Amino acid sequence: MSGKRLPVVVLISGNGSNLQTFIDGQRDGSLPIDIRAVISNRADAHGLRRAEDAGIHSEILDHRAYPNRASYDTALAGLVDRFAPGLIVLAGFMRLLSASFVERYTGRLINIHPSLLPAFRGLHTHRRALESGVREHGCSVHFVTPELDAGPVIAQAVVPVAANDTPETLQTRVQTEEHRLYPLAIRWIAEGRVTLRDGEVLHDGDRRRQPPRITPGTDTAAARADR
Ligand code: GRF
Predict the structure, then answer these.
(1) CA distance 150 to 185
(2) How far does the chain reach from its first CA to its final CA, in angstroms?
């Protein structure tokens, strides 16, 4: 593809189904990114296989080899910086990150969380959504800040909650939308259409009252940051 591609590092711990959507988008040209490296804290993460199959460089940085979070995060930052990423994408990276790591990458570090933030920060979001009786659930892509799952939201995907849903069926429905939402948000960032300024997300240079939302019917290929 022509034009500049955003250098990206992806951090994973497990399956890597979101990573796969980035690989696919890079390959088919819909995502103007260059995945320079995939880094996992676990050697058995299936996402490492996905990277290998795609010919993408990968690294394992096992947290168990470090005495504490600060020393691991220092090593992680050193490794990340070797690839000079314009964007660091957390895709199922199951570790809390220290404030100094997060602040080093302000505006260049994003995460996907399986809820409509600010609802249901933390773990077990699908079960908690069912227990609370909400009619809508979903996922959010956000810039990462030191406070867990509290960073400014870039975009969200909404799914309906069915009366007979289990945490598993709801998770499956949300993940289908994660796989549409995350590449969309990354595309907007890669195209320079979404930025973080003074702690606020700008879409095409403007603040929005609410983050844009997609639904299962949305054509994400045509979706624009300003709709
Ligand atoms: C996703 O469901 C995401 O919401 C959460 O971790 C999961 C990662 O899945 N942050 P995968 O490894 O991308 O398949």
Answers:
(1) 17
(2) 26
Q: Is 103 helix (H, G, I), strand (E, B) or coil?
A: helix
- CA 2 to ligand 1 center in whole angstroms: 30
| Domains present along the chain, CATH in parentheses | 1-105 (3.40.50.170), 112-227 (3.40.50.170)
Ligand 1 mean position, distance from CA 100 (Å) = 24
- Write down the pTM of the prediction: 0.97
Would you call 179 a catalytic residue per the annotation? no
Note the pLDDT tens digit of each residue in 55-94: 999 999 999 999 999 999 999 999 999 999 999 999 999 9
Alpha-helix runs per DSSP H in the chain: 17-28, 46-53, 69-81, 99-104, 125-132, 167-190
The C-alpha torsion from 40 through 46 and 50 to 52, rounded to 10°, is 60
Supply the residue whose CA is at minimum distance from atom 14 of ligand 1: 17
